Amino acid sequence: MVSFWVLAAAWRWGDWKDFKAYYPTMLYISCLKLLYELFSHEVHYEWHLEPDFFLNYTGTIMLHTFFIYPLSAFIFLSTFPKLANISKCVHILKWTLIYFIVEALAYKTGRITYHDSWSLWWSLVFDLNMFLMLRLHYTHFIWSIPLSCLCTFFYLLYFGYLL
User: Which of 152, 21, 135, 14 is nearest to 85 (CA)?
Assistant: First the structure.
């Protein structure tokens, strides 16, 4: 269901004329999702996407990694306000809330499970961080890489991947 909504929203609100400008950030989010899968597969998952009705686990991960996350980043960036810093903050908070609500519904329906000390509240923090980093990657690519590494290092350290 999320896939259909994302596809319809991208079709409706995506800035397809400037798709090339958004493409590097779409790849960025896909690469980070793949890194999470790589790290968590060997050690442990903090959150785990459960297989969908029509897909096994691998299919579910592929759908999120190469379709849902990049297209939602595309919509997020396509609709980002040009002026007024308050509008930009509201936009980031709106998208964080959208992801939070979708994840809360997924959690209630068993589509996502949490492990160790991860919770829906950590997802809220993570989503806010993610949307800030997506915007930073789009506007200041060179700053986003070291900051992404610092954020990743924090999560890896805090949740025991490095111990």
Answer: 135
